[in-house]
Design goal:
This protein has 464 residues and is of the alpha/beta class. The chain contains 15 helices and 20 strands. Helix 1 crosses helix 7 (203-212), helix 4 packs parallel to helix 5 (149-163) and helix 9 (260-272) packs across helix 10. Bound molecules: nicotinamide-adenine-dinucleotide.
Length: 464
């Protein structure tokens, strides 16, 4: 992917209003691989105006036509899968196999699911003497993070387009090349001018201008809780719809009687994938005291498979690397026991962090409470189910989790008591149609599937 010195606005690649650029760095070798424009409020304004102009016509298209355009977009994503994977590897550092399977693969599934939903969803319902129409909310300001650069974009843009909304996207500054590639795919898919617009730029400049723009009807944000709080306040003050997908600190609860080896191995794999930069990662492993030592030994052995630079990529940038190493130091300071990894950088070049496992973690420790966003697993001990539940629910977050038990019904009963938005039972598979989103401070709103589509719709009821 050759970086473009332009923004995609109103169906054209247009020069930015200002001269500033953002350097894109490959985190594996620390080399600059390109520059993209650093958009300003002026660029955001042009993009929002294009989206507003395109809205009435796009909102009126038949769902079947929108479905056809989204299906065409999915087909372009399939055709350009290798280029997508290479681009994500270059700017995020994900190992090539992971980029192919997950970073390029999942967006194809999600785009495909919305092509189908747009065609089959009922945008009209009857309630007693009323007919309720589900109408698009309007212009969407989408702000995305770098951790799953294409997935985060598709999980917002595909349902917005399916609903009949138009979009202005401000992607993360670390991964703008994937976003440019996506804009090319939108263009190739024949989506009309102005329906999708891209403004690259810095969060506090372009992102803030987008969130606060009066021409935006709904802000959909994925990223940190700190920024999400600000965006929620801005949107609230303007009485605007807002969706927030924020951080997590999910629990992997292993009940006595579960397949311990499988639960520990899958738990470690879940965190090590994407170098721990997954908001829904099960970063706290909860094990019964009778099985604790065995679980710790299994985890220490499991993590040795994750060789740095091969199966585990770097973190996205030097700041994230320093932050995660700081958390590991804090864990040691507070008395957690390192059984694998540690704060030292494992390679001289690249923003790598050693895959790390902490034992003897107590629920009050910083590493058990705060989102680390790196390849770090904390193993905690519980004496009975009530304690396991208290610990699992004992953070400000509630995004995801896992429960393992000998009996599925036992795992389900535990999962129903967890304050969290998604739980995998005995290693349940990813479902691109299942609603994804948080309880508590993990966010507001849901993405994916029909629940994700409804975020972009508002109701109008006619009484007869
Ligand atoms: P971040 O909040 O700093 O940035 C996310 C996006 O917001 C970027 O596009 C950024 O440019 C923009 N932004 C930053 N400041 C802004 C402002 N003042 N106004 C408007 N936009 C602004 O987060 P990050 O460091 O890029 O991502 C890591 C965090 O995101 C982690 O905490 C992680 O848990 C969270 N995350 C959550 C999910 C989820 O689905 N719940 C998914 C991915 C990441």
């Amino acid at each position: 992917m050759k970086p473009r010195d332009a923004m995609y606005i109103d169906g054209q690649w247009q020069k930015a209003a200002g001269q500033d650029t953002i350097a894109v760095v490959n985190p594996a070798d620390e080399q600059v691989i390109g520059h993209v424009p650093a958009g300003t409020a002026q660029d955001v304004d042009a993009a929002v105006r294009a989206a507003r102009d395109a809205f009435p016509r796009w909102a009126r298209t038949l769902p079947a036509e929108r479905a056809a355009r989204i299906a065409a977009l999915r087909d372009v994503l399939v055709a350009r899968k290798d280029e997508i994977a290479e681009t994500v590897t270059a700017e995020l550092g994900a190992p090539p196999a992971f980029s192919q399977a997950v970073h390029a693969g999942v967006p194809v599934l999600v785009a495909g699911s919305y092509a189908e939903l747009a065609a089959t969803y009922s945008f009209e319902e009857k309630i007693g003497n009323s007919t309720v129409f589900l109408e698009p909310v309007g212009v969407v300001g989408a702000i995305t993070p770098w951790n799953y650069p294409l997935h985060q974009i598709v999980a917002k843009v595909a349902p917005a387009l399916a609903a009949g909304c138009t979009v202005v996207l401000k992607p993360a500054e670390d991964t703008p090349l994937t976003a440019q590639l996506f804009a090319e795919a939108v263009d190739e898919a024949g989506i009309p001018a102005g329906v999708f617009n891209l403004v690259t730029g810095l969060g506090p400049v372009a992102g803030q201008a987008l969130a606060g723009h009066e021409g935006v009807d709904l802000v959909s944000f994925t990223g940190s809780t700190a920024v999400g709080r600000k965006i929620g306040a801005t949107a609230g003050a303007a009485v605007k719809r807002v969706a927030l997908e924020l951080g997590g600190k999910s629990a992997n609860v292993i009940l006595p009687g579960a397949d311990l080896a499988k639960a520990v191995n899958v738990g470690i794999a879940n965190v090590m994938g994407n170098s721990g930069q997954t908001c829904s990662a099960w970063t706290r492993m909860l094990v019964h005291e009778d099985q604790y030592d065995e679980a710790v030994a299994t985890a220490a052995a499991a993590v040795t498979k994750y060789t740095v630079g091969d199966r585990v990529g770097p973190l996205v940038n030097a700041k994230q690397q320093a932050r995660v190493r700081g958390y590991i130091e804090k864990g040691v300071e507070e008395g957690a026991r390192l059984v694998a990894g540690g704060p030292e950088a494992p390679l001289d070049t690249g923003y790598y962090v050693a895959p790390t496992v902490f034992a003897d973690v107590t629920p009050d420790m910083t590493v058990a409470q705060e989102e680390i966003f790196g390849p770090v697993v904390c193993i905690l001990k519980y004496a009975d189910e009530d304690e396991a539940l208290r610990v699992a629910n004992g953070t400000v977050y509630g995004l995801a989790g896992a429960v393992w038990a000998a009996d599925e019904a036992e795992a389900v009963a535990f999962a129903r008591r967890m304050d969290t938005g998604q739980v995998d039972i005995n290693g349940g598979r990813f479902n691109p149609l299942a609603p994804f989103g948080g309880y508590k401070q993990s966010g507001v709103g849901r993405e994916l599937g029909p629940h994700g589509l409804s975020e972009y719709l508002q109701t109008k009821s006619l009484q007869f």
